[in-house]
Specification:
The protein is mainly beta. The chain has one domain: Beta-galactosidase, Chain A, domain 5 (Distorted Sandwich), CATH 2.70.98.10. It contains two helices and 29 strands. The strands form eight sheets. Strands 10-11-12-13-29-23-22-17-20 form a nine-stranded antiparallel sheet, with no helix packed on it. It has a six-stranded antiparallel sheet with strand order 16-27-24-21-18-19, with no helix packed on it. A hairpin with a 4-residue loop joins strand 2 and strand 3. The longest helix is centred in the first third of the chain and has 4 residues. InterPro entries: Aldose_1/G6P_1-epimerase (IPR008183), Gal_mutarotase_sf_dom (IPR011013), Galactose_mutarotase-like (IPR047215), GH-type_carb-bd (IPR014718). This is Aldose 1-epimerase. Belongs to the aldose epimerase family. It holds the Pfam family Aldose_epim. GO terms for molecular function: aldose 1-epimerase activity; carbohydrate binding.
Length: about 350
């Protein structure tokens, strides 16, 4: 029987020095646990999830806990795009594609459609004590053109390092934009109930301006003087009340895409740390942007390691930091961003999470 017949079998990885251990399942090539040591040397599981990983498939809340998201991550205006890309939606015809809508009252598509890559069972290609590689074939699912074949490799290394790489090829021209949708709480709900006191730094002086449906307007807004300026590390809640105005007065929090400044690829684009646990996370990536989402709508039972299912993950109890491309660039030609891949042009995605401690 093939590996993808066991989508919830757990693969455990551990670095030889014991600094980090992780668990994954084939469903969504998903990270289900990530244990790193706090400033006292105590291991904490710093990602959200389920004790029963089969709930990744059945939870109606569908928070996308730590999965690989594709074929096109984040939001797509109207669930539609054209090749060549255009600003305005085109009538049905050659080169015009419609993906099932599932966001903002079905006005847009989120994370690749109703059954994106996070809702698919990947196959294990190979694994060792420190690495696992998963394989997925997207056979023109959800209305995208062509067949995309992807391999994802998760690796843990000495020194508290988690690396994830993805390589994808396409049989014909198609948009590809992936992410790993990890929810972080560096205290692991031991000493705090939310991430508002976590310190965040994002090496970005611009953020994607969005409309009321969280779709880009085409403007890249300057963060200077606004609550979205994290170029110098700030507590997540440093100007919390002002975030209400960013979200049409509906809620407080962040769900925005920061565009990285031009910095060396080996320098962190995002840093996050907690004074309580002392755990610090530095993220480097080959991606040009990061979506920061402060878990504004979380409402699902916790893992035992986080207090047990009688308690819930709730709003702002974690922050998702998604390394990705410019959101909905396939409908925003004024940016000049090419997210169309095919024969002769492969897609690659890589991110390294490095953990350390602060006093």
């Amino acid at each position: 029987m093939s590996a993808d017949a066991y989508p919830f079998d757990v693969t455990t990885l551990e670095a030889p020095d014991g600094s980090i251990s992780a668990k994954f399942v084939s469903f969504g090539a998903t990270l289900t646990e990530l244990w790193v040591k706090d400033k006292a040397g105590k291991p904490r599981d710093v990602v959200l999830g389920y004790d029963d990983p089969s709930r990744l498939q059945t939870d109606p809340a569908h928070p996308v806990f730590n999965a690989i998201v594709g074929r096109y991550a984040n939001r797509m205006k109207g669930g539609s795009f054209s090749i060549p890309i255009t600003k305005e939606r085109q009538p049905p015809g050659p080169g015009v594609y419609q993906i099932p809508t599932n966001d903002h009252d079905d006005r847009n598509t989120l994370h690749g459609g109703i059954y994106g890559w996070d809702r698919r069972s990947w196959s294990v290609v190979s694994k060792s004590s420190t690495s696992v590689t998963y394989h997925h074939v997207d056979n023109a699912d959800e209305g995208f053109p062509g067949v995309v074949t992807a391999h994802t490799t998760h690796t843990v290394e000495n020194g508290g390092i988690l690396k994830t790489t993805i390589h994808a090829t396409a049989s014909e021209l198609t948009p590809i934009m992936l992410t790993q949708h990890v929810y972080w709480n560096l205290d692991a709900f031991d000493g705090s109930e939310d991430v508002l006191a976590h310190h965040l730094r994002v090496a970005a002086s611009r953020v994607v301006d969005i409309d009321s449906d969280a779709i880009p307007t085409g403007v890249l807004a300057d963060v200077a003087g606004t609550p979205r300026d994290f170029r110098t590390a700030q507590r997540i809640d440093w100007r919390w009340d002002e975030t209400l105005a960013l979200n049409d007065g509906v809620y407080k929090g962040y769900d925005h895409c920061w565009v990285y400044d031009d910095t060396p690829e080996d320098e962190p684009g995002v840093s996050l740390w907690s004074d309580i646990s002392g755990i610090r996370l530095d993220i480097t990536t080959n991606n040009p942007a990061a979506q920061v989402y402060t878990g504004n709508w979380l409402d699902t039972p916790r893992k035992v390691a986080h207090g047990g299912p009688e308690r819930k993950y709730t709003s702002h109890s974690a922050v998702a930091i998604e390394q990705e491309g410019y959101i909905d660039a396939i409908n925003t030609p004024e940016w000049g961003v090419d997210q169309i891949y095919g024969p002769g042009r492969d897609y690659t995605w890589s991110t390294t999470c490095r953990f350390s401690t602060v006093e």
